[in-house]
Amino acid sequence: MAVSRPDHPSLLPALLLAPEPTERIRRSGRDWAVDVACFVLAVLFGALMLVLTSQGSPPPGHPPRLLDVTIGALGCLALWIRRRRPVELAITLSLLSSVSATVAGAGCIALFTVAVHRRFRTVALVAMVNLATGLVYAATFPDPKKSYWAEVGSGAVYSVIISAAIVAWGMFVRARRQLILSLRDRALRAESEQQLRVKQARHQERARIAREMHDVLAHRISLLSVHAGALEFRPGAPPEEIAKAAGVIRASAHQALQDLREVIGVLREDEAEDTPERPQPNIADLPTLIDESRRAGMTVRYENRLHDLGAVPTGIGRSAYRTVQEALTNARKHAPNATVSVVVDGSAGSELTIEVRNPLVNAASGIPGSGTGLIGLAERAMLSGGRLEHGPTPDGEFRVRTSLPWRGEAARANASDVNA
């Protein structure tokens, strides 16, 4: 989708037809400077008109000079309220300019203010009133030394040129202000959206870290609990077995601390952005996980029906590994002496299935559990496009079964062609 540039020609009419900006309650330093400049310009323009019209005798019916100067002075003073009532002030000064020459400067400033702060329709109406009053003054008080129609024609030309120049300048200033406001609004929206994306990314990263900490540390600490429990209930075991169990406890504790250090390291703010991520376990590491559980005293029957574990895609392979890891941890918690069955099956182009079963027993190891592990597994499966089923079966077993979509080479190639 093409993004329109700020200087696109079609943007100018839209800016001119946009509603006027909200009025400021207080004048800023810039507003005071502009108001003073406008007042000075109106006074100078009025003085110039007074000099031009003072040459020779005034036309018949022309107001006295004192009254003309008084009207012009009041018009210049009224410019201080031009921000509050620009349309009313511009029309009033335009009507007064039909009998006073010195108020013309204030009328021009008022017309410029309307062109800056109001829509084009209002500006056009005020400009027509200003043009009409200019023609009325030229027709009512022509120069006696010149031809009447020449004076009226020159007055009409001057009024049109001056009014058109003022309106064009005011519309340009208005369009520029509206453009700046729109760009500022876009920048604020973009900054807000960026902050929202950052917050969402942080939330997702924290959720991912929480899942990793639960999956990794729950497995390690459950191994520690099993071996420590064995030493507690068998104080008279042979020294060789005690030394072996103590070695396993030491190695598991060391590995748990290492895993915790690596996971917590992600939360450090001063971590370099180009630091490579720690390699995550995959389905190819399942034999190592099974052997580790067996060394902890578990009875695990592992059946791999896949020809090549390395052919499984990395994403679903990691989810499969975490599923088995969490299921074995739960089995150690709730069925410490039961036989656990792990079956890995599937094929490319279909789905990868992981099924872990263990008998329901009344014994418990005493290891606390919150039940959030299965919730995390269900979320992993959902994010991978699969599903997770868990619960007791009619055969008196507890089953955890996850199904993850496994695209084959042809499916991946077709998806790449579609994305291209």
Beta-strand proportion: 5-15%
Uncertain parts: 1-18, 409-420
Number of helices: 12
Gap between N and C termini: 17 Å
How many strand segments?
5
Please provide the ordered H/E string of secondary-structure elements.
HHHHHHHHHEHEEHEEH
Helical residue percent?
A: 55-70%
Q: Taking Cα atoms only, what radius of gyration do you get, to the nearest Å?
A: 43 Å
What this model shows, in words?
- The chain is built from twelve helices and five strands.
- Mean pLDDT is 76; it is low at 1-18 and 409-420.
- The chain has a five-stranded mixed beta sheet with strand order 1-2-3-5-4.
- It has 420 residues and is α+β, with helices and mostly antiparallel strands.
- The protein folds into two domains: 28-193, no CATH class; 282-420, Histidine kinase-like ATPase, C-terminal domain (Heat Shock Protein 90, 2-Layer Sandwich).
- The radius of gyration is 43 Å and the shape is rod-shaped.
- Helices cover 62% and strands 9% of the residues.
- Keywords: ATP-binding, Kinase, Membrane, Nucleotide-binding, Phosphoprotein, Transferase, Transmembrane, Transmembrane helix, Two-component regulatory system.
- InterPro entries: DUF7134 (IPR055558), HATPase_C_sf (IPR036890), Sensor_HK_TwoCompSys (IPR050482), Sig_transdc_His_kin_sub3_dim/P (IPR011712).
- Its EC number is 2.7.13.3.
- Residues 205-271 form the Signal transduction histidine kinase subgroup 3 dimerisation and phosphoacceptor domain.
- Pfam families: DUF7134, HisKA_3.
